[in-house]
Write a structure and sequence with these properties.
Layout (H helix, E strand, L loop, with lengths): L7 H10 L2 E5 L6 H8 L4 E5 L3 H9 L1 H6 L4 E5 L8 H10 L6 E5 L7 H6 L4 E5 L5 H5 L5 H7 L12 H9 L3 H4 L4 H24 L7 H9 L4 E2 L2 H5 L6 H13 L3 E4 L15 E4 L2 H8 L3 H6 L1 H21 L6 E6 L5 E7 L5 E6 L11 H9 L4 E8 L5 E2 L4 E5 L5
Parallel strand pairs: 1-4, 1-5, 2-3, 3-4, 11-12, 12-14
Antiparallel strand pairs: 6-8, 7-8, 9-10, 10-11, 13-14
Helix pairs in contact: 12-14
Amino acid sequence: MHYSRYIKPQLEEALQDTPVVLIHGPRQAGKTTLAQELASDRYHYITFDDDTELAAAKNDPRGYIDDLPGFCILDEIQRVPELFPSIKRAVDQRRTPGRFLLTGSANILAMPRLAESLAGRMEVVNLRPLSRCEIEGSSAGFLADAFAGKINPTFNTRLGETLFDYVIAGGFPEPLQRSSSKRQRAWYSNYLHVMVQKDITEFAKIHHAEDIPALLQKAANHTASLFNVAEINRGLGLDAKTTRRYLGLLKQLFLIETLEPWFNNRNKRLIKTPKMHITDTGLLCSLLKVNKAQLMKNRTLMGPILETFVYAELRKQADWFDEDLQFFHYRDKDQYEVDVVIQDEADNLIGIEVKLAASVKESDFKGLKRFQSQHLDKVVGGYLLYDGERTLSFGDGLKAVPIQALW
């Protein structure tokens, strides 16, 4: 099945005025498919998953770039960091818009020397796994409506079991095509194996790749929790420094994300620790070895997984939003918290809380109320996403909103 990617118009614009455009994101998120859709017949396609191309590029980077046709897609560019100085040189000699369309399954911007070499010459676009909007082909207006205070959807039924289906499925295109959850689990198992055997060992040249699956599994158990290296490390047999380095590597390969804490100098009681999320809930459920029946029985386990699901949906929509949005979480020492805080370019703020239940009570808004009281002039909405049918007002811009309003 073909999915329309909502980031595509942004990429098309970038190719019109920028010499180098990089699409980066996790392996198998759809980068190659999108790059080939964007590129007309004038683009020559090369993948560095081809060992012959890889060896040639590494052996003579300058000659390799000089010999390329006018317009190229260079797929899995993170495998040949040696090419970046030669790409810079080629662009400086002939600054043609859209000349190089790159894809990468690792965040090369985390390598300062590489990021600097193409500063001012390259636009970077993040491609995450599919959002529910893209899967269903629906419009993606949630963030615009949330900042405008115009959220008021009503639905015929609540999601119920379907919500568990969506969470288990995740957003990677390939497993969505598979007919059974067993076949989907097989895909994720193979995906993790390839990531460890190929990408992680090659990209970081680490010596103990066998420790990575256990570390990733421990990280999965801490999704939507404060980023605590000591807690994740417990029982792994790694020293804290190694664990921190490996977690940084998993972040660089788009397998985990950290959500920065909201804090300002006026409030000394704020927690200044980031939160951690696994990138995709299909991957997360595979790591936790849980299926739909287990999640429906253990709703306590489903809570943080659902928070990760909502966070991922919001981040995906922010990628194609008209403005740059910043994401935070809020927690203070009195245990008041807001799962996601989003700030727009005008410093307007919205708070998002996530609840699995089909009913909401006033006390569920205590974190949003505390946050709102500290930023009365900036908070334009506080939304508690729940598995209900109707949007309900709780006064002062606070609303309970059905989760399905996200798509």
